[in-house]
Amino acid sequence: MNQDILINWSPQETRVAVVEQGAVQEVHIERTLERGLVGNIYLGKVSRVLPGMQSAFLDIGLDRAAFLHVADLMPNIQAKHAAPRAPSAEGAPQVLAPNPVLPIEKQIFEGQALMVQVLKDPIGTKGARLTAQISIAGRLLVFLPQDSHIGVSQKIPLAQREALRARLQQLTATTDGSPTGGFILRTNAEDASDQELADDVAYLRKTWLRIKQAALSQPSATLLHEDLNLIQRVLRDLTSAETQSIRIDSREQHGLLQGFAAEFMPDTVAKLQHYSGERPIFDLYNVDEEIARALGRRVDLKSGGYLVIDQTEALTTVDVNTGGFVGARNFDDTVFRTNLEAAQAIARQLRLRNLGGIVIVDFIDMTREDHREAVLSEFRKQLGRDRVKTMIGSFSQLGLVEMTRKRTRESLAHMLSEPCEACGGKGEVKTARSVCYDILREILREARAFNPREFRVVASPKVVELFLDEERAHLAGLSEFIGKPISLQSESSMTQEQYDIVLL
After folding, report:
1. Fewer beta carbons within 10 angstroms: which end of the chain, N or C?
2. What is the Cα–Cα distance from 83 to 450, expressed in whole angstroms?
3. Cα torsion for 78, 80, 86, 92, to the nearest 10°?
4. Which residues have a Cβ under 8 Å from the Cβ of 327 and sit 6 or more positions away?
5. Cβ atoms within 10 A of the Cβ of 85, count?
6. In the chain, which residues fall in CATH 3.30.420.60?
């Protein structure tokens, strides 16, 4: 499948669109002041150990404490301020070797300095998720400095893995036989030469040496290593043999990217292009329109059907509807064709919106088993193009399809939007009449507790207008009942649900 990558750069924001077969499939956004933290390595300080949760909170210099579970501890953990131990020959802090089966409170303690890496960015009210199992991604390899494992990507055919593993072991072996960390061969390294692999090994080991030296000299809650920026990650993670072009609209960034590519990914240099057209680069494939549509609940299908996508704290729901699609043969055929098209659209929307976690899809009910299997097969096929890991089940007894998609960063909606001030994120507000009745009840409550000279209602223009028109009799009746005058004041800055009752 042909792929084009568009990069729109500005000092405050970098936007990347992945286009396949002329349709936008993915959008990645990185803002200078809001760069993601996944892959960053910190020297954290244990601020709290929670035996009941078998986890700990660490201060890594962010606004919120980060979370570390016992399963993410390594058998070898470097502690800068650990319990007294005999120094090593070089005088460096001793390496702890906690037993993985021991509870967390017997492995780490409050105040301990611990080298950790961010697994997941802070999302909502949750802090970053950490691991002590450090890994550093290169162009062809992933370096595991605390391990001795030599592995090969599961996406490489099984028949080739053993030969590649043996080749990698030979390239990473040291002259004295001492272990210097483990490596995992990435999928794009399947056809790499020995020299390319050796260069990546040298680069990763040099990077790890610099991180270790920084850990010995820097205070706690310090950033030791920052992952590549979005433009560089495009070359490392998004570029493949199917990529035809990588176009960027900044001459300066194009030059920097060429230098990075020449050093680490020479095969991609020929694909880099500086876009100097008069039209904005994202207008070539209407990317901004796709982003705007991706922020809405409804997704229209070409057949006339539509999807309704709702993102909640716990999961994402997708409802499939036939809409105006009536079909040409019979109802079963109409439902089947709508669901087939929906399976393709849902897979694309998950990538485009970067929806993660649990996803529940409510396809239109199908009576024929072969139709259900065909829809599920098409859904799995489309999800197979997603570079993010997904797991999908079969149709449940209620006709729902449950799936999960790995979540490592904020969704597109959470990145570009915030809850509405008027409705608080509910998507609805009380009617003006409901607010009027709330005000009447509140005045009656206040009248029983206080004895003011007058009650003044300050509310939105629509609520005040309703009191002066249709609800005028009810307002006058309440005033007569409590024996106090009630005046009205319109405030245009108030939302429909907001109001104040002033006692004069």
Report:
1. N
2. 64
3. 80
4. 333, 334, 337
5. 11
6. 3-35+229-287
For domain 3-35+229-287, give the CATH number.
3.30.420.60
CA angle 23, 24, 29 (to 5 degrees): 170
Q: What angle do CA 364, 367, 370 make, to 5 degrees?
A: 100
- The pLDDT-based confidence of 176 (bands split at 50, 70, 90) is low
The encoded tokens of residue 479 equal 């005033």
For the stretch 380-417, pLDDT in tens is 999 988 888 889 999 998 889 999 998 767 889 888 98
**Closest of 334, 411, 339 to residue 382, by C-alpha:** 339
- 3-class SS shares of the chain: helix, strand, coil, % to 5: 35, 25, 40
Q: In the chain, list all ranges with CATH 2.40.50.140.
A: 41-225
Q: Where are the alpha helices (DSSP H) in 98-157?
A: none
Q: For 343-367, how does the pLDDT look when each residue is reduced to its tens digit (9 = 90+)?
A: 999 999 999 999 989 999 999 999 8
Q: What sign does the dihedral 109-115-120-123 (CA atoms) show?
A: positive
Q: Which of 146, 189, 198, 209 lies closest to 171, judged by CA?
A: 198
Q: Among positive and negative, which fits the CA dihedral 329, 333, 338, 343?
A: negative
Name the CATH superfamily, with its identifier, for domain 432-503. Answer: Ribonuclease E, catalytic domain (3.40.1260.20)
What angle is formed at CA 66 by the lines to CA 64 and CA 72, rounded to 5 degrees?
175
Distance CA 268, CA 271 (A): 5
Would you state the structure tokens that stand for residue 226, as one six-digit string? 């920052």
Burial tier of 285 (Cβ tally within 10 Å: 0-12, 13-18, 19+): middle
Which two three-digit tokens encode residue 204? 């990763």
Distance CA 241, CA 81 (A): 48
Is 3.40.50.300 the CATH classification of the domain at 41-225?
no
Whose tokens are 């994402």? That residue is 316
| pTM beyond 0.85, yes or no | no
Asked if residue 131 lies in contact with residue 72, where contact means CB atoms within 8 angstroms, the answer is: yes
- Number of neighbours of residue 494 by Cβ within 10 angstroms: 18
Q: Name the least confident of 93-102, 126-135, 284-293, 403-412.
A: 93-102
DSSP assignment string, 257-280: HHHHHHHH-GGGGGGEEE---SS-
Q: How far apart are CA 9 and CA 16, in angstroms?
A: 9
- What is the DSSP track for 300-367? E-TTS-EEEEEE-SSEEEEEEE-TT---SS-HHHHHHHHHHHHHHHHHHHHHHHT--EEEEEEPPP--
Strand-pair partners of 222: 43
